[in-house]
Every structure is written in C-alpha cells, then in structure tokens.
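Reading group handout, session on sequence-to-structure problems. Before we discuss, look at one worked example. The prompt was deliberately terse, the way you'd type it at a terminal:

> structure Asparaginase

The input record follows.
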Amino acid sequence: MDKTLVEEYRGGALECVHSGHICGVSISGAVKYAVGDVESLTYLRSSGKPFQAIPVIKHGADRKFGLSDKETAIMIGSHRAETFHVEALESMLTKIGVGEEALVCHPTYPLSVPASEAMLRAQKPKRSIYHNCSGKHLGILALCKTMGYPTEGYFEPDHPAQIEIVDTLAYLSECPREHIHIGTDGCGFPVFAIPLKHLATAFLKLACPEVIEDLEIRSAVIRITALMNEHYEMIAGSDRICSSLLMDPNIVAKGGAKGVYCFGLKKEKLGFALKVMDGSEDEWPIITASILEQIGYSNQETIDRMYQLTPTDITNDNKKIIGTNKAVFTLETI
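And the output record:
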C-alpha cells in the first residue's frame, strides 16, 4: 500500500495529500530503505533515458557522427527546447544526416515557457525537435545508421535497437526480461514498467559502475553519467530538478512523467527510486531533500537547491506566504 509522502496546508488546513512509494538499495543489491511498496510496478517514462542511450554509446554512434559532448548529453535529456538545446539538436540533424520528418515524436512547442512564448510571438511553427524527447530519438536514429538497422520503425518494440535497449535494462535492473511490462510512451517509444526496487537497482549501477560486469556496458555507463554531470543543463534545463541535482558530481539523477524520480549516490553507494502516485512532479524536490536529510547527506548546497525549487512555504501570486509543504514520510531501514 502507498504511504503519504507530502502534505500541503493552506491557512492551516490540509488541502492536498501526495502518496506514493520510495525504495533505496545498497551496493549489495539489498533493499536498505523503504516507504510503501518497493515491489510497486512503475513505468520508467523518461527516467529510462540513460539506459536507452547505452546502446548508442556502446556501439560508438556518437563518435561515428562526431557528436559533441553536449549533443551526446541531450540524448539522455528531457530538454525544454531552450536556445542552447535547439542549437545542439539542429547540429545533430546535420551530422547524423536525417531530416526532422524522420522523428516519430509529434511536432510541438517548447516546454520552456519563455522559449514557447518567443516562438509564438515570432509566429514560428511547432517542430519535432522541440519535443522534449527528440534528443533520445536522434540518438537511436544514429545507432540505426551505425549498425545498419532500418531507420523506419526505429520506435517499434520489435526493432533491433529497441530489443537491445530492453535487454540492457533487464541486465542492469536485475529484472528478468519476461517480467518487464512494455507500453507506449508519449513520444512514441516503448516504455518499460518494472518493480520499484529494480529501478532503484538500475540507478545504483549508474552511480556505481564498478559493479557492472559487462565491460562494454560499464564503459558506456561511465561516459553517460560523466556527461550528465558535466553538461547538466542538457539533461533538463533552467531551474529543473534534474539539472539542479546533477550539479552535484556525486549524484546521477533522472525523472520521468507521472511522478517517477530516480537518483544514485556515488560515495554512499545507494540507489533510490520513488513514485508519486497521483503523477505530480512538483513534490520531487521536497521528497528528494527529505531523503537526503534522513540519510545524513553531507552536501547541504544540494539540499538547499531542492528547497529553492519547492520551498516549504507556499506563496500566492503576490508572493504572500499562504501555506506550507511538508514531507511527512520516514524512511524505514530494512
């Protein structure tokens, strides 16, 4: 059963309750921390992007097409189509040699409000590269051209690129492939659901690649996580939780739609996955801050950045404090 994670109060009265599950695993693979049900089946959504990028890096598609580090990093990102994101994506189209029409992700306006408003003022049309998953799609198209796979249907579950992705996730999460539930994501890609503890295990291995026995996958993970920390702005964007957490070189983090968030801690050798069951993302920073506080995390600046994103004080449009956010869960030590 899910547990209450965050309560919101307005004028002293409880207004909203956000329930869910949290799982933390140690380097031994055992569950160390738990709130709610660590077996809860959870769709990765965009938290799966680091794993979807592994075959791209493993087979050298980034090197084949001369992609810069920032261009490679955006393959892992859920970008907001800010100017620097769009510049990287347009460069990738040219280097990989594909047209924008090759992308299955639907044309849209940027998720960044300032960027979207600028497009509307300039009367510019929607574009597929503005979709927050377009970097991932370009990465898989680069993989297809590197391996000689067909680019048509690159998003279908039976495409060889997608088969390798799910095999990679099964390996790193220690979830048997036959137990991975496959649906369709908003961008048109296959999306995977696994028990929360297996998702935490996968992020533990992103943070601690030394436990990965497959040397090719280990090497790809080391490069991917280095890019996530070095070019954190490409993984999300301005004032977003992923980019804020990835400023800390000790953390590997990625979230997804509908309330799923994951991170691994390198020095502490821990992997965490959480799911807010109402699908809200607003609570991620305050939940993450509470997890870090409860385990005694030493980098207070990282915790402070989380509270800047989701303050404990709720303010109205006039910046008047009218309520409070409270993380109310306690990590159960297993």
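Points for discussion. First: The chain has twelve helices and twelve strands. Second: The chain has a mean pLDDT of 97.
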